[in-house]
Amino acid sequence: MDTVNFDAIVIGAGIAGATVAAALAPTHRIALIEAEEAAGYHSTGRSAASWILNYGPPDVRALTGASRDFLENPPAGFAETPILRRRMNVYLAPADQVGKLDAMLDGVGIREISLAETKTLVPALRDGYAIRAAVEADVFDIDVAVLHQGFLRQARRNGGTLALRSRSMRIERRAGLWHVEVTGGANFAAPILVNAAGAWGDGVASQAGMALLGLVPKRRTGVIVDPAPWQVANWPFVMAADGGWYCRPEARTRLMVSPADATPMPPQDVQPDEFDVAVAIDHMTTALDIAVTRVERSWAGLRTFTTDGSLALGKAGDGYFCCLGQGGYGIQTSPGVGALVAALVMGTNPGYSPEVLAMVDPHRFS
Length: 366
Ligand SMILES: Cc1cc2nc3c(=O)[nH]c(=O)nc-3n(C[C@H](O)[C@H](O)[C@H](O)COP(=O)(O)OP(=O)(O)OC[C@H]3O[C@@H](n4cnc5c(N)ncnc54)[C@H](O)[C@@H]3O)c2cc1C
Prior knowledge:
Blueprint: E1 3-5, E2 8-11, H1 15-24, E3 30-33, E4 50-52, H2 58-72, E5 84-86, E6 89-93, H3 98-104, E7 110-113, H4 115-121, E8 132-136, E9 139-142, H5 144-157, E10 161-163, E11 168-174, E12 177-182, E13 187-190, E14 192-195, H6 201-207, E15 216-225, E16 237-240, E17 246-250, E18 254-258, E19 263-264, H7 274-287, E20 295-305, E21 312-317, E22 320-324, H8 334-346, H9 354-360
Helix pairs in contact: 1-5, 1-8, 2-8
Bound molecules: flavin-adenine dinucleotide.
């Protein structure tokens, strides 16, 4: 088959690849290559969809903060509905977690509240579960579908090509060009290759003959339950101070519960494990007086980490760039990540401190 030439090929059309494609499309002819029938089928379509500033290592916090303005004020035509909706976080500390709560109070905008106030925010809280609690008010739900589609639309409007059902099978660098052959036999060529393949990032690096980062995909489970008769639409996001479980309202009348599991596993179309589902329900019902008679739905997704937990963004070889290791923060950091990787591709100033750039530099693993 003929080879189609582009300025840059981005592999993976989850949130990471979509943001880089959108950021590069005004100046580069982009091919965004996705293995599945739909963009967002893997981690991007399976998240808890929160924006939490006090979360993750310093590079993540910098990128989360830098993404806020875009998420609150996206460019004209990006989204027809708001991307963010404010929903405070409540952290609950049973006796063995007060040390964690104390450490948390060093975070930006986190303050301790009385148990009486906690109970007004979370009326189902069982007496005696928490001995202390805190709130973080500046937290948001993210409409992930609107955000992801906005980036894909931006890329397409600027001439980008989205190739679905196109898994990279062979990647070679010849005469200054990357040649990517995908399932079905189509061939793409470009001087720049961006690896945004999420859990499959090391597999794509291996195809391209580039150094592996040692990425570790970790399963995380979500469970939907009916909390009736509680009316939960305006409840906060509720999390144990040690991060061991959390729940949040979903679609106004339901709760999403997670056991905050992080089980390492190979890249795959991951499915929930019954044990994790049971653990999620057990944690929540120990803390909250909610009778769960039935699990309405459960799912799992992969959160893929580098070995030091920071992201891997930027140049890692001749014309080869990484946008990997998004862990549990890929949605909330996405506008900042896309702009940063695009700046590094274009050789412009990405606008972050040398410390942050060193933390995300993929060369730190070589
Ligand atoms: C339960 C859960 C809760 C989470 N909660 C949050 C949260 O509250 N806030 C937050 O910010 N983040 C959260 N996350 C993390 C977030 O979902 C991820 O960080 C983010 O989706 C990663 O995006 P990605 O584009 O890197 O990966 P993906 O969405 O997995 O995209 C990678 C894409 O690459 C494609 N691909 C792979 N190999 C190839 C190939 N060879 N050729 C072509 N295409 C290929 C895949 O098909 C896939 O579509 C959560 C994750 C989970 C599972």
